[in-house]
Amino acid sequence: MSSLQELFTRRVVLMTGKGGVGRSSLTAALATQAQRKGVRVLICDIGDDPNDYSPLARHFGRDRFTAAPTLVAPGIHGVVLLARSGQELFLKSVLRSGTLARAALSSDALRRLLSAGPSFKEMGVFFQLLTLLRAKLPSGEPEHSLVLIDMPATGHTLSLTGLPELLLRLVPRGPIAAALREGQSYLNDPKLGAAWVVAIPETLPVSECLELLEGLQKTGMPTGGVLMNRVPVDPFSAAERSALQSPLERINPLGAEGFRRPVLARREIARLRAGTKLPIIELPELAHGAALISGLADVLEKEGRTS
Length: 307
Ligand SMILES: Nc1ncnc2c1ncn2[C@@H]1O[C@H](COP(=O)(O)OP(=O)(O)O)[C@@H](O)[C@H]1O
Ligand SMILES: [Mg+2]
Hints:
Helix content is 54%, strand content 16%. Helix 7 packs across helix 9. By secondary structure, the chain is α/β, with parallel strands linked by helices. An 8-stranded mixed β-sheet has the order 3-4-2-5-1-6-7-8, sandwiched between helices. A hairpin with a 2-residue loop joins strand 3 and strand 4. The structure holds adenosine-5'-diphosphate (ADP) and magnesium ion.
């Protein structure tokens, strides 16, 4: 099975990478692709404010997703994971009664947890994710066979993947620890969880991609591969290139920059290949507009069969 086909057999996939490289577009394209394969896919945004505008939801004709999963296209559900609602869900579920909740809130363990500050925010997202992964259909099958998450930024991804280990050091026992271990059992099992890094073939994004791959490994998060997006198509052969190079530089230096772009892109992809053994799937620069997502989904479909 190709690495891309494997992506569709996972329970949870984190789409991560530097801002602007195409995480949201590829999340939408992969969801389309998953739906074509009959996978019950849930796409997730991670947000702070329920009123925030979502570029991912935009691909499905909406301004934003809601805090409960809703059908956004045939076979595709969408949801926004909000730290606050996740925290509430967490406290309600872990501490079943009000008396217990009060007792827990005065416990040392929970006080230590709350004082971990920003981690508690990630904990909200983490717990909501766990709830979605646990949800079952009446048949007993998972309600969302694939949970595909459009991660906000590199730092957030590592905070989320590193969260269980960090918090388990503070709270090694009890219901909180059990929830953390259960979440880990999805995220850190290479059969169930994967992170895919999206990058573009330019110097900084490739450097950041290599750093992110290292960070993911440190937090025990299995990595599926790299989606190298917006690879420029080179219309010239090597012979044409050498013939055109110097006249172009003389006549039109600005044009020469565009002329060099495909060559620089190849160089950056080679640098990435030298730095990782993971599969690198190339996606071309396509025309912007309504057909972008279906265009990307078509390329992913072909790649899935060959790579
Ligand atoms: N393969 C592609 N070809 C052309 N444009 C693309 C491609 N992938 C993404 N884009 C464009 O790049 C911009 C950033 O993409 P987006 O998915 O929003 O990135 P991110 O979610 O990583 O910030 C958008 O305008 C999108 O239309
Ligand atoms: Mg985005």
